[in-house]
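Protocol step 4 of 6: structure prediction from sequence.
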Amino acid sequence: MTSKPYITGMNHSALVALCQDAGVKPIHADTLNAYIFRRGITDWYAMPELPQALRDYLDVSVDVLTPDVVANQHAEDGTQKMLLRMPDGKDIESVLIPAAGRLTQCVSTQVGCAIGCEFCLTATAGLTRNLSTAEIMSQVFTARHIMGEPVRNVVLMGMGEPLHNYDAVADFVRLITDPQGMALSPRRVTLSTAGLVPAIYRLIEDKLPCSLAVSLNATTDAIRSDIMPINQKYPLADLLEAMRCYVQQHGRKRILIEYVLLGGVNDSLDDAKRLVTLLDGLASTVNLLPFNAFEGSKFQRPERSHVEAFRAELSKAGFVAVVRESRGRDISAACGQLKTEVTARRRQKVS
């Protein structure tokens, strides 16, 4: 592994410091920032506006993190799932979701996950380690290289719990929304959490420039604790209080509620009515996600009639409720399915 710092994880202030170390004017950091983050160019010698002294300094002092694309699967609906190998040999998955006029990327923030949600395949891997800011950003650079266009929307909903890796994730969010760099609108960057309450308050205090999604998935503490162990530490009342605080601090901003419908577990009409009560007065949009099955899971996909009845109950109460049929199910790139390729590659190594 290289001992050089990765420039693709550096913010504008760090680039200014590089210029100062190289003995050139700090203003060159603006040019460097624009080349790297706005234009996706990471070859110093393809930046003719930069002084030769700076280019020579960069050549020996910093590096660009370029993960190996071990596999790139294509789904029938156009979704792509990349298996990326980091310099230490650890693998992650990142998903590309093309649509008319925009490219959305679902990025990973950890190698594995420690949250342990029962309905999520990624959780069965456990947590190996956090990703650095540069490693998270490298997924976006790789997507641009493969697709030939910049990513327009980023959702931090891949492998890992983003708020478990707060510092690196916060730096990534600030970097990708930096007006002098990649300049994504904060409305186009969505961070999803399983409900780490203290970290949500930290996100509020830091005014992190992104939208918030909360994976709720149940309307009682008993059920939520059974399918999401984190609820035992941060029960629904505490989580909802943090969510309301987020909305109050952000004025008109809404929270995205993610609700995975598990057949016979949390998909009843009573569940829908309780969800209406829980979210009463909270500016929110509800994404209903029918469970994506995987081998060895104890859960079943809900009946279509239950999904429609659930949505109708929310709509009747005035909520914007959308049934999201996850993209990329045929290549295990849908919500809760990331780990498939990682596991397959590990089995190949063993055999």
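Step 5 (inspection) to follow. The two ends are 26 Å apart (CA to CA).
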